[in-house]
Specification:
Layout lengths: L6 H13 L3 H11 L8 H15 L8
Helix pairs in contact: 1-2, 2-3
């Protein structure tokens, strides 16, 4: 529906994949979201960068 361009939708999809242990897919979708950093609020961009590191380490990211 978003033509894979809304970074917030993509990072949510990535988080869902990570929660079920599908980290390769989570990394793929989060990298796609991060291709347009100008569409993020600065704090959200930093969170997604941290999430990417965790997904690459096969761990989920959870907000506090």
């Amino acid at each position: 529906m978003t033509s894979s361009k809304d970074p917030y939708v993509l990072d949510t999809l990535a988080a869902a994949y990570a929660e079920v242990g599908q980290y390769d897919e989570a990394v793929q979708w989060l990298k796609k979201a991060l291709q347009n950093p100008e569409l993020f609020e600065p704090d959200d961009l930093e969170k997604d960068k941290k999430a990417l590191t965790l997904y690459q380490a096969q761990k989920p990211f959870r907000d506090e």
